[in-house]
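Q: How would the structure tokens look for this protein?
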Amino acid sequence: MTKRQPGIFDCELLVVTGKGGVGKTTLAAALGLLAAQRGKQTIVCELSGQRRIPALVGHPTSGPPGSEEALTPNLWATTIDPEQALVEWAGRLIRPRALLDLAVHSNSFVGFINAAPGGRELLTIGKAVDLSRDERWNSDRDGYELVILDAPASGHGLAMLQTPKTFAQIARVGPIASQARQLDELLRDPQRCQIVAVTTLEQTPVNETLELQQALVEQLGHGPGLVIANELIADDLDDRALAQLEAAIPAAGSALTGAVTARHARAALEAGQLKRLRAGISCELATLPLIAEHAVGPDELATLVRLLGQQLTAGD
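A: Here is the predicted structure in token form.
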């Protein structure tokens, strides 16, 4: 009997990154919906006070920042605040409670976060992983089966994934070092942590994706488990058909032919970048079309979920 290959959702933490502007948050939401539809108790985490996921799914944002909002069956969303995460983590270490309250009110925690390079990133990853644990920092709720982190763009995302190792080396002993080592071990284990790289088929985003793969291998020992090429232009014309179209439309229709020609040229460039991407990556590749010129909403997201689900391996 053939052993089932682990799928992209067979992990604790799924980190979604890519060059800014490629649709990373939209696809984090799509991955969350797809995982939930496949029976995974899933939470999608945003950063920097962003709360876009609920609206993308068609759910009004409710509750205070940092709350875990139920969106659909098996799917939740939250925003990670590093300062709040530090208070929750410290609450398990500092006794009595009065000492913790004193530190909070004196702004000692805020000072620590601002003074320690990478402190915010360490706490962000720590909080994301905490959401998957049965014994959580500041909640009696069970952990989620899958945590999806809508991470920063590629460069900052890489730096974030490096911070646990950096803190473990600097601190060496104590609770911070222990926490950092545990996080670093998780990030390095592809059975527990997977990376999804999102790109569009233009030269710069594809370059960043290939560089991201190499950097992840050097940094974590494994590259992305999935690359998603987003917003592909649909174009069924070949050069002969395009020439026939141009000949059939009078000069008054030059604006139309110009638009068709430009779209055809862009599609040709994308085809070349897609070929280059396929040759350069060492993981599964999914492709998604440009489905809306306007902002993506629940209907468009549902289409992306359906198309993505058709492509991901049955192992998921």
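Residues 98 and 104 are 10 Å apart (CA to CA).

The chain has a mean pLDDT of 83.

Upvote if useful.
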